[in-house]
Amino acid sequence: MDDANRYPAEQRDAVYRVLAERRDVRRGFVPDPVPADVLRRILTAAHQAPSVGLSQPWDFIVITDRARRERVAALARRHRDEFAAALPAARARAFDRLKIESILDTPVNIVVSCDRTRGGRHTLGRHAQPRTAEFSSVLAVANLWLAARAEGLGVGWVSFFDERELAAELGLPEHLEVIAYLCVGYVTDFAPEPELATAGWARRRPVSWAVHAEEYGRRGLPGEEPVDPLAEVIAAIGPPDEAAMAAARERQDRMTKPRGSLGQLEEVSVRLAGLAGCCPPPLPEPACVAVFAADHGVHAQGVSPWPQEVTAQMVANFLAGGAVVNSFAAQVGAEVTVVDIGVAAELESAGGLLPRKIAPGTADFTEGPAMSRGQALAALTAGIEIARDLVAAGNRCLITGDMGIANTTTSAALICAFTGADPAEATGRGTGIDAATYARKIGVICRGLARHRPDPSDPVGVIAAFGGFEHGALAGFMLGAAGLRTPVILDGVIAGAAALAAAALAPDAIAACFAGHRSSEPGHAIALNHLGLRPLVDLGLRLGEGTGALLALPLVQSAARALRDVATFDSAGVTDKL
Ligand SMILES: Cc1cc2nc3c(=O)[nH]c(=O)nc-3n(C[C@H](O)[C@H](O)[C@H](O)COP(=O)(O)O)c2cc1C
C-alpha cells in the first residue's frame, strides 16, 4: 500500500474527528457575532463541494436582519404546529420537548439554494439524473456544516417550511429552490450525541445494517462475512434477565398496595423488566402498530364470503385513517404503519405505506406450496427489518396488525401444523361464514395438511407451505422486536399463528411477546396455550387489523408505569400488613 498520498495521522484524525463531532445544534447558542472572515471561510469550504458536471448549482443567502428572521421564524412555527397536531399522543408529548430551530437565537442564518438549470442542457451527468443538481447543493451544505464545526460554530438545519413560501420571503427567483435553511452561531458546547438520540426520539442504526456486500441484502462490513438477518436476529435473542425480574417482583411486593392486587399486570411488569434487563423497565411508548397486508391463493377455494379485492380496499381505508385500527390507535396514542407484504393489487405509494411486496398474493396451498422457501425467508427478513426500523425511529413498543382476506384459513392451517391440533378444533368462522363454507374451510385445511405433511421443526418450510406473506413477516417482526428487547403486543389469531413460527425459530422470542387479546377464533386459544401466553383482553373481538392488541396497549403501559411510579411502603411511610 502506498502511503504517499495519505495525510499524516494527526491530520487524518482531525478529519475523522470533525465528521464524528459535527452536530445539528439547536441549543446553547451565544449571541456573539460571527466575524466576516470566518463566514467567508465556511462559505468558501461550501463552494468547494463536488457538483454534477461542475455545475455548482448552489447560491448562499446570508441573513442577519432581525425582522426577516422573525418572519421566517413565524413560517417555521406554523409548520411546527401543523406537524405536532398530526402526531400520536406519546410522540406529540416528546415532540413538545424538542427544539427544532434556532432562527432567532443565532446571529446568522444561511440559505443554500439550488439552480437546476445552471450549466445548461448538456451538464454532464444531470441529463440522466436531474436530481443530481439538488444532491450537489446538499454536498455544499455538508462542507459548510463540517467547516463550521472546525471553527467552533454550531449549525442547525431547519426544514419546517413550505419551500415556495420561504423562497418568496427570500426573494429567490422562480427557478431557484431552497435546499437548506441553516442557523449558524457560536455555542457553549457541542453535544456528544445527536439530540434526537439523547431525547429518545430516534436511535442510530448500526453501520452493519447499512452496508451490503455486492448486492442489496447481503449485509455486513468489509472483512466480515455477510450476515443473514434471520440468523443474526436469532443469535441476538436471549432469555429474560432473571435479576431484573426478581427486582420487579420484589418491588411489586413493596409497592403501596396489597401484594398481588394488580393481578395479571404484575406479571406483565415483571416480564417487561426481564425483557429490558432492568427494573423499572422503560415505559413502552411511543408505540406503533404495523398492519401487514397480503392476499392468499387459498381464497380460490371459497373459504371466505369476501372478495379478495377487499384486502387492497381496506389498505386504502387504513391509509385514509378510516378503519377501526385507526380509531383505536388514535385513542391509545399509537402510530399506524401499513405494510404491503403481498397484496394482489398494485398499490399507489402513500404516506404511512411501506411497499414490501414479496409477490401479489400467495399460491393456493391445496395445490402446492403457498410460496417458495426464498419467499418465506424474504417475508421473515422484511418483518425483521421493519421492526428494527420502527425501533430505530424511536418506538418502544411494537404492535402487530394484519389484513388479508382468507387469512384465518391460513392461520388455522399454520396452527394445526405447529401444534398438531385437529383442523375441526382450530378452524373458526373468520369474518362470518355459513355452515357449508365452514365445512369447506375445514376440508381445505385437512387437504393442505395432508398434502404438505408439515414438519414443525422446519418453521420456514411450514410458512412456505401454507403462507401467508403476512405470517412470515409478522414472525420476523416479533423476532426483530425480541432481538432489540422491545415488547411486541400480539393481536389475534393471525399473530398467534405467526408467533408459533417465531417461537419455533427462537423460543426465547416469546419473552418479548404480550398477548393483547383472545380472539373468538378457536385456533387463537390453541396457539396461546401452546406458547404459554395469557391474553390481556377478552372481548370476543374477531376483527384483526391490530385492534385487540391496541386495546391492550394502555394495560401494558400502565403495568410498566405502576412499577416505575408507585411508592413503596418504606418510601411513603405506609405501614405494611402484619
Ligand atoms: C435534510 C435535513 C433536514 C433537517 N431538518 C431539521 C429541522 O427542521 N429541525 C431540526 O431540529 N433538525 C433538523 N435536522 C437535523 C437532524 O435532526 C439531525 O441532523 C439528526 O438528528 C442527526 O443529528 P446530528 O446532525 O447532530 O448528527 C435536519 C437534518 C437534515 C440532514
Radius of gyration: 27 Å
Q: Structural class, from secondary structure content? A: alpha/beta
Mean pLDDT over the full residue set: 96
Bound molecules: flavin mononucleotide
What strand order characterises the main sheet?
Answer: 7-6-5-8-9-10
Discrete helix count = 23
Helix content: 40-55%
Q: Unreliable runs, pLDDT <50, ≥5 residues?
A: none
Strand content: 5-15%
Described by the principal axes of the CA atoms, the overall outline is: globular
Describe the structure.
Helix 20 (493-505) runs parallel beside helix 21 (522-531). This protein is an alpha/beta fold and 578 residues long. The termini are far apart. The protein has a six-stranded parallel sheet with strand order 7-6-5-8-9-10, with helices on both faces. Strands 1-2-4-3 form a four-stranded antiparallel sheet, with helices on both faces. The mean pLDDT is 96. The chain contains 23 helices and ten strands. Helix 20 links the parallel strand 9 (488-490) and strand 10. The chain has helices at 9-21, 36-47, 66-85, 89-96, 132-150, 163-169, 195-198, 207-210, 229-236, 242-254, 264-276, 309-320, 324-332, 373-392, 407-419, 423-426, 435-452, 459-466, 469-483, 493-505, 522-531, 547-565, 569-572, and strands spanning 60-63, 108-115, 153-158, 176-186, 287-294, 334-342, 353-355, 397-403, 488-490, 513-515. The longest helix has 20 residues, at 66-85. Flavin mononucleotide (FMN) binds at residues 23-24, 26, 100-101, 157-160, 194, 196.
